[in-house]
Amino acid sequence: KADPTRLKIADIAESSIDPLGRAVRYQLKNKYKFEGRVPALFSTENPRCGLLPFDEAQGDPLDFQIVPNFRVRTIPVLGTTPAIFGMAAAAYVLTFLTGRPLIPEPLFKIRLSEIEVLFERLKDREDIQFGTSDGVHVDLDEVEYLVRSVWCGCCAFVLAKGPLTAAKKNKGLWRNTNELALVRWDETKPCTMENLVLVHYNVADDHAEAGLEATREAHPKEAEFIEQRLLALRHHLGSTS
């Protein structure tokens, strides 16, 4: 692998076109009953060639093992690739340790027309709940960022259960947003990026009717996940609010 633009940081459950990631997923699931919530750095580039062959004339294969039970044959890789992987991993770890973790771009596809529909739904819901949509302080680009990068194109309450659960609700890399809407998490705060959550229609209606405190009480784990996500977004945007 050689293409630096194909590097991705995502949950290992979302890793694709990566034989090592597939093997690790298998071990985690079958040996440890652990299916997700493990960040992984991988490349979505298709392998250009296989492992280099090992010639028996070279001697005992075990003499070439780096660690016991590690494969002997060398993976052909461009010399710059390990360094790029290392720098990307270091950036992820350092930002995590400073309390301002990265929000990696997720692996899925969504049409611009769906983003436009979600933007219109947001304004419609603001009209219904607050009597006007003048308080919507986001534009189409910001809505796209929220849907793609923050809420990964699915209901936040589903996303809170883990990437595997979210993946099962969708088909392949595509996301279906037909029954989703952006709503204010805290209705007492402005309609800005830092206060918008993507949820299913029925969740949006219940949340608008019951209020934030009732949602926190009824769904504590999901509420904690959403608020951590919004906090990470505020840090990412450099907001002090």
Automatic annotation (TrEMBL):
One of its GO terms (cellular component) is plastid. One of its GO terms (biological process) is cyclic threonylcarbamoyladenosine biosynthetic process. It comes from the Eukaryota. One of its GO terms (molecular function) is tRNA threonylcarbamoyladenosine dehydratase. This is Uncharacterized protein.
